[in-house]
Amino acid sequence: KYRKFEELKNSLKISDNNFVVLFIGRLIEKKGVTPLLEAFSTLENKNRDFKLLIAGTGPLEEKVKQFSDEHENIYYLGGVQNSQIYELYNFLHESFRFKDCRKKRRC
Q1: Is 83 helix (H, G, I), strand (E, B) or coil?
Q2: CB-side neighbour CA atoms (13 Å) of 38
Q3: First-to-last C-alpha distance (Å) of the chain
Q4: Pairing mode of beta strands 74-78, 50-55
Q5: What are 67-77's pLDDT values in tens digits?
Q6: Alpha helices, DSSP H only, in 23-81?
C-alpha cells in the first residue's frame, strides 16, 4: 500500500500530460468493470497518455490483475480504505467513472 499518493503518482509515472481515469468500487459485473477494461485496452492502443487506475476488491479481482499485467497503462491498486477514498479522488480528479448496470439497462 502507498502511504502518500504522491508516491503512487511517481511510481506509476503519472505526469501532468496524462489523463487519468479512476475507478473505485466493488469489482463485480454490474459495476461495469469488464466493459471499462475492454474499452480502455482499445483506447490504450491509440493514445498512451491515458492511464486507468482501479481500486477495489471482489469476484473480478483476478481479471483486473490480469489486465493490469497485460497492459502497461492499466493499474490495479488493490483495496482502498474508506478514509483514503476522498484523498484519492481529490488527488486524481480528472475523470470519475460511476456506473451501475441494472438488469433492464445494458452496459
Answers
A1: helix
A2: 6
A3: 31
A4: parallel
A5: 999 998 899 99
A6: 33-46, 61-70
